[in-house]
Write a structure and sequence with these properties.
The protein is of the alpha/beta class. It is built from 20 helices and 28 strands. 42% of the residues are buried. The protein binds alpha-D-glucopyranose and magnesium ion.
């Protein structure tokens, strides 16, 4: 039994009325400091009460710690740890195995868990595939603003009209809207002749209307893509007036060359026909225009012009627009030497050359330096893309016909970004290639030439080309929409394609398009008629007595309102496909593999590694047909009809040895298999933004 004096000699510490015992001094000097069997931890008690506390009262014993097992005299008890104990007491306990061990275990556990968490985070980051951006996950819908919806009853569409119709895009599950130009313009080329790049034409509304439209679109999760027209301005632009008068600062804003009223500087011709030079008396020189004489070409070799145009890009980015469609980019630069372009037919009398098809455009298109200009704008757009969810998109417009390598250059290089994609116009040639093999050939023209890792896109119509349903026949419009929405990449939809609108007939006297006035066969009016919203007056487009172009007579049946009520309509099927494209992984980021093509049918599959569900798309561009896909061992014997453009019996089984399609029918067949087609058929398959699916965790990962 320890006495009070022993306790004190054992270097007792009393702090603030607590009694502490320094165990270390007792054991370090080897003396057997007997504390008795136990000491009660009495917590808050006075010094004089300690005596009682160390008494041998059995009831007060609470803990006994054997410091030296086996040796009776080393066995002693001590106070229980208590809340608020000072450091010295804490240290006393902390060395004991029963406290030290769990502590060490916890310590190492924390280290291991932290490391595991860091490793997991790194793995997740490294293994995560890139998220698809908004311009990849939605079709791009083109609005021609004169013809979409008129809000002020003047017979011409406007910005408020577009605002009224935003629900249409939510209905169609479309997020990306490209609006053709609405800048202040004398409208010689219906807005592609810009008088002021920082103002809205009163015909379309005001800057306030634009701001309201953009805000409303962003509220609804829609993105606005503007037309940017760098190649030329209107001849009414103040720069051109100043340039024509030889103003020191502006004289080189445009391309001027010596000439006289009878002799142009060279043989260059305009895209819209005739010489691309026009004489200005005031300056006694000719200016150059790739399009109308009211659209003088800017001189991009002048650094001031480049700076001005970049500031305009910034102006709209600051306003919050989500992207630009870069108009007519191949024309931005011309050769400085102004030499004649070579004739396609060297024998042709040079004086008779008046269309672009009669010359090789070696000096007026795709000149060295063009891509630097676009890349610089891309750089500006990237600065504005840094905010999360505010990626600014760029699409380039360039008709290089089948000079695929020229087109693909607009994708940029692996190290320098340019447009997100150049428009792919190859499917516009479907009317002259209307077979299964023809369709596959046009698809392949893009897929086989697109740089690795880039994102494809598909266009069948716009404000410059005849409507596809008119040129292939309306019976094929559904199958064409199915092609666009099931191919990998971004589909484009020109307003009205979602309901199967067709070209209107415009008599020669009624022609509005300046290009049409030069060449009536090339008039673009037929594809620009007012949107058909309902079977009401002016198809619900306008309350005016007269619309700027006539409505298509079939608007009483072909209109949005009627088609919304019909589950088999072009519109309902478009919507179903648009929703499906978003919902089904294999459709928006899976492999596309060619399976079949013949005179009638083009078939391809969409699959994603790791996911058993896949789709076979069978498209008929010819006559009724039955195909036998028994040889494709990766396909199961039986597939399920997910959607047909002609039949309603969805869910019906389809046997792979006998897949029948009617003329113009498209089938979307679903199947389940653990066998992938792409590993054994690399040359028939393409993938962008590759990812694999991990079923157990229901996640996508980079593979
Ligand atoms: C583009 C436009 C076209 C316009 C031309 C000149 O090709 O799509 O409509 O006439 O550029 O700006
Ligand atoms: Mg109007």
């Amino acid at each position: 039994m320890i006495t009070r004096s022993q306790l004190i000699s054992a270097k007792d510490l009393e702090v603030d009325g607590y009694m502490f015992i320094d165990m270390s001094s007792g054991t370090a000097n080897g003396s057997s400091m007997e504390l008795g069997e136990c000491i009660q931890n009495t917590g808050f008690h006075e010094d004089d009460e300690t005596e009682d506390a160390v008494g041998g009262d059995e009831e007060n014993r609470t803990s006994t710690v054997k410091m030296s097992p086996g040796r009776e005299e080393d066995t002693y008890t001590q106070i229980k740890p208590y809340a608020g104990m000072p450091k010295e007491v804490l240290l006393l306990y902390s060395v004991q195995a029963r406290y030290r061990l769990p502590r060490e275990i916890l310590f190492w556990l924390t280290i291991v868990c932290t490391l595991a968490l860091v490793a997991l985070t790194i793995t997740v980051i490294v293994m995560s595939p890139r998220c698809l951006s908004w311009w990849q996950s939605s079709p791009v819908y083109q609005i021609y603003p004169r013809s979409f919806k008129d809000s002020d009853s003047d017979g011409i569409g406007d910005l408020k009209g577009i605002l009224d119709k935003l629900d249409h895009f939510q209905y169609l599950n479309i997020k990306a809207i490209w609006i053709s130009p609405f800048y202040k313009s004398p409208m010689k080329d219906f807005g592609y002749d810009v008088e002021d790049f920082r103002d809205i034409d009163p015909l379309f509304g005001s800057m306030q209307d634009f701001d309201d439209l953009l805000a409303a679109m962003h509220d609804k999760g829609l993105k606005l893509i503007m037309d940017f027209i760098p190649n030329h301005t209107s001849n009414m632009h103040q720069w051109f007036n100043l340039s024509s008068s030889g103003h020191a600062q502006y004289k080189d804003y445009y391309i001027w060359a010596n000439c006289n009223t009878t002799h142009a500087p060279n043989n260059w011709v305009s895209v819209f026909g005739n010489s691309s030079w026009t004489y200005v008396e005031e300056r006694q020189q000719c200016y150059y225009h790739q399009f109308l004489k009211e659209q003088p070409d800017l001189n991009f070799r002048n650094p001031h012009v480049r700076r001005e145009m970049t500031e305009i890009v910034r102006f709209w980015l600051e306003k919050g627009v989500d992207g630009f469609r870069m108009d007519a980019v191949k024309h931005i630069l011309e050769a400085k030497h102004l030499r004649d372009e070579p004739q396609v037919d060297p024998q042709q009398d040079p004086d008779t050359i008046d269309t672009e098809f009669e010359l090789h455009h070696d000096y007026t298109t795709t000149q060295l330096g063009l891509h630097d200009i676009l890349q610089a704008w891309r750089g500006e757009m990237d600065i504005y893309s840094r905010e999360p969810g505010r990626y600014r998109f760029m699409v380039a417009e360039s008709y290089d016909y089948e000079e695929t390598e020229k087109t693909m250059m607009y994708y940029g290089t692996p190290y320098v970004k340019e447009s997100d994609f150049p428009f792919n116009f190859y499917l516009m040639d479907l009317p002259t290639n209307l077979t299964g093999t023809g369709a596959q050939g046009l698809v392949n023209l893009w897929m086989a030439n697109m740089p690795v890792g880039k994102w494809p896109n598909w266009v069948v119509g716009n404000h410059d080309k005849p409507r596809i349903s008119s040129s292939v026949g309306q019976e094929y419009i559904k199958v064409i929409n199915m092609l666009l929405l099931t191919l990998p990449g971004t589909p484009s939809t020109y307003y009205g394609e979602e309901i199967g609108m067709m070209n209107i007939n415009v008599t020669i006297d009624e022609i509005q398009d300046p290009f049409g006035k030069f060449n009536p066969n090339a008039s673009r009016d037929p594809q620009r008629s007012p949107m058909q919203w309902s079977d009401g007056p002016n198809a619900g487009f306008s309350d005016a007595n007269h619309t700027w172009l006539p409505l298509h007579p079939h608007h009483t049946t072909v209109n949005v309102e009627a088609q919304q009520k019909d589950s088999g309509s072009v519109l309902s099927q478009y919507r179903a496909l648009s929703l499906l494209r978003q919902a089904q992984l294999p459709l928006h980021r899976g492999w596309m593999c060619y399976i079949w093509s013949d005179a009638d049918v083009f078939a391809f599959l969409r699959e994603i590694d790791g996911l058993d569900k896949a789709f076979l798309v069978v498209l008929n561009f010819g006559a009724d047909s039955v195909i036998n896909l028994s040889a494709i061992t990766e396909l199961p014997e039986q597939l399920t009809l997910h959607m047909s453009t002609k039949q309603e019996n969805y869910g019906m089984p389809v046997i792979k040895s006998s897949i029948s399609t009617a003329r113009g029918e498209g089938l979307l067949l679903e199947y389940s298999t653990h066998m992938r087609f792409n590993p054994g058929h690399a040359s028939q398959c393409f993938v962008s933004e590759k990812a694999c699916y991990l079923g157990v965790l229901d996640i996508l990962y980079k593979c």
